[in-house]
Design goal:
Elements (H helix, E strand, L loop, with lengths): L1 E12 L5 E6 L2 E4 L7 E11 L6 E2 L9 H6 L5 H4 L14 H7 L4 E7 L3 E7 L3 H8 L3 E8 L2 H11 L9 H6 L7 H9 L17 E2 L21 E10 L2 E4 L3 E3 L6 E7 L1
Antiparallel strand pairs: 1-2, 1-13, 2-3, 4-5, 4-10, 4-13, 6-7, 6-8, 8-9, 10-11, 11-12
Length: about 260
């Protein structure tokens, strides 16, 4: 099996375990079926903006050229800090994008990837979001009308819970075993009064299982800029990471990079 093209990230289908695919150019490469085999990943030296196709020497924010980084709505500060959404001020970089992605119902949720964390995502996007974070279980705790409100509630709860994943613990499987419904009940008591009418109390926990053959030992990150060819045995996939016997690589970091991939 071999393929070539520009990395667009890892896509997946929810299952037990999750089925992963490497989005490469216009196609996808199924990865679950090559677990346990040696994989060669070779960077050609060519990098392309995932939005406009411009040839570039470095990427910004997972595959953008500098121009798209400064102008595209996907790269605005409010994407990483939703409480700063400025759509209603009329200054959104792209109003159509804002209507489609931000001014729609969002979930605020609890997820367990290393420890319990609070996060947010568009309604109906939750499975993708949780899988991208490497969460093993998650539960929505509130449904709000837009991204800004979700960000404000997330910030209020981040005073009590982390809103970031410890990716090293997540990859090594060093995860605190918690009763997520009990944590949910405790967290809901901390929700400020102005958000209480958005609370969800009947949602069920979603479990996620990842295709991992072996536990990851010491975490070593492969870097395509410093090591353009990686050849190693694929032992798992979790979040946006490929786990090899000798190291790991965050595929999302290399969106826009042109590569050759081959099972050897």
């Amino acid at each position: 099996m071999q393929a070539s093209g520009m990395i667009k990230g890892l896509s997946h289908e929810y299952g037990d375990p999750i089925q992963y695919y490497l989005a490469l150019g216009e196609g996808t490469l199924p990865l679950n079926q090559v677990l346990g085999e040696a994989l060669r990943l070779q960077f050609t030296g060519e990098i392309e903006c995932v939005y406009c196709g411009r040839k570039i020497k470095k990427t910004y924010n997972h595959g953008s050229c500098y121009v798209c980084f400064k102008k595209r709505p996907e790269n605005d500060l409010c994407i990483v800090k939703p409480s700063l959404c400025h759509f209603e001020e009329g200054t959104c970089r792209d109003a159509a994008f804002g209507e489609q992605h931000c001014m729609i119902p969002h979930y605020v949720y609890l997820a367990v990837s290393s420890d319990v964390k609070v996060g947010l995502t568009r309604k109906n996007n939750e499975l993708k979001r949780w899988a991208d974070q490497g969460a093993i279980k998650a539960i929505p705790i509130a449904e709000v009308p837009n991204r800004k409100t979700a960000g404000e509630l997330e910030e209020a709860l981040a005073d009590y819970l982390p809103d970031k994943t410890n990716w090293r613990k997540m990859l090594k499987g060093e995860i605190n075993d918690v009763d997520l419904k009990q944590v949910r009940d405790e967290v809901l008591r901390l929700v400020p009064e102005s958000f209480r009418h958005y609370i969800l109390t009947e949602e069920e926990i979603v479990q996620l299982t990842y295709p991992v053959l072996e536990e990851v030992g010491q975490i070593k990150s492969y870097n395509l800029d410093k090591q353009p060819q990686i050849e190693d045995r694929l032992i798992g996939i979790k979040g946006q990471y490929l786990l090899f016997a000798g190291g790991v690589i965050n595929i999302k970091k290399y969106c826009g990079y042109h590569v050759h991939v081959k099972v050897v």
